[in-house]
Amino acid sequence: MSDSTKLIGAVLASSTISALSTYLLLKYLNKPSESSNPNIQTETNNAPSSSSSSQPHRIHFDKDFAESEIRKIRYEESEKQKSLLESGQSNEIYEEQNNRTKLFYGEEAFNNIKNAFVIVVGLGGVGSAAAHTLLRSGVGRLRLIDPDVVTLSSLNRNALAQRKDVGRTKAQVLKDYFAKISPETRVEALQMFFTYDLAPTLLEGNPTYVLDCIDNKETKVALMYYCKQHGIPIISSFGAGSSCDPTKISVTDIADTFGCPLGRDIRRELRIKGVTEGILCVSSAEKNRKKMIPLTETEVEEIRAQKSQSSGINAEYGIICRNTILRMMPLRYMLSSYYTN
Question: Taking the model in full, what pTM does it have?
Fold first, then answer.
């Protein structure tokens, strides 16, 4: 037998085996399956076997039934939630409200969050967003510090303020809204301008973290220097009002805040005081479009004359500040030397 004949025979044998395997597989797939659920219907082909053997078995679900069941489950869950709220059981309400946070971070980490005390200094676009998200994340105690009041021009970036709040202090506005969101959280509102001399009073209570969202260079330096001196963990936000690209935001030690003009100025001021590292900063490498204007004596006296601008990513800065605090929370005590050395 020639080699070509052997080759043809092998090809034919292979084709026959392949066709037989395909036939058996299709026949198996075409077997009707039994279902005890009357709302799941099966479709079979009653045509002669010669044509039906190539049609796979299909299952059809009753869409109306499925949607009805989903609505029923949602309604029952909603009624349970309403009953829990009406019961006034604050501990149970708090636990249910923060259940998703606990599932994400784990029970041990969430207990750290629940027992945390965070001070937010500066409640503009960054600070209000950070404080708001920290509250919704389950932080047990917040102290809000800002000397300013809500203005019409600040409504484009304040996380919660409305037109009816114009003229009210930013700290009190947030506190009032926070009481409606999570009354179990302890919130303090201070309408005060931060100074180094007032720091022992404003930062008392052994805070877990201080969040610096101040928009004035001299005040930022005073806050950062005091916290570094006294071993208080601080995270500082740099230059949100001068940036518009959220992809350029990063979290680094102050020694590595390259590309940020404000960071450069802050580093220079702190270096004079002997501080070169050990402070986490949220900053952007994007080229800034305006410089930070230092406060004059008149502006210190009349803080409401202070102007800010919004770039559209103030909230992103605030949320990144919040995320940094929550991620660092489990390591808070392990990294105590980071803030004091």
Answer: 0.70
